[in-house]
Prior knowledge:
The protein is an alpha+beta fold. The protein contains 9 helices and 4 strands. It has one domain (10-193): 3-Layer(aba) Sandwich (Glutaredoxin). Strands 2-1-3-4 form a 4-stranded mixed sheet, sandwiched between helices.
Amino acid sequence: MSTPYSDTRSDFFRHHYEQGLLYADYIASGEPNQIANVRNYEALIALTPAQQALLGSYARKMRVLVLSGLWCGDCTRQAPMLAAIERACPPIEMRYLDSRSHLELHEELRINGALKVPVVVTLSEDFFELSRFGDRHLSVYRRKAATECGPACETGLVPPSDDALAVELAEWCDYFERLQLMLRLAPMLRRRYKD
């Protein structure tokens, strides 16, 4: 008897996920200046107590595949945010892949026709795709539009304000909350876990 639940790309995503690195290993694979940039952002990223409590309440496993590049400023900023979320939420298991070493995956995850990073693919415990997201949240695009659409041009050398980082981190938390609720309410998983 066939099941109504399937994803023809689950083996593709499982293959890439299994090749992925844990956060610490991924960061350690960078050049010294790239590692220093990530460490600078790690010091600026802090979940609120409410965000920690919400993330800590999640029950459904999520496998998260992060296509990234330590040479990328957006990745350098977002990877520590993702790591903070993973630390606060044991059911989330992230794996990181360098986009330049995984061209087949990078091709699959094009956005608006372009090879972008970071791209986050969130998968269920069965490696069914829940969502893919890249490369920036709305708050970042708003900030970029305000500084780059007109006479001002952001250099990217100065980190965003603490408030801007907090808004972007909150957007990541909202992203994962939506997906956790999707999993929590999925009929297949509710039957599996009798909840």
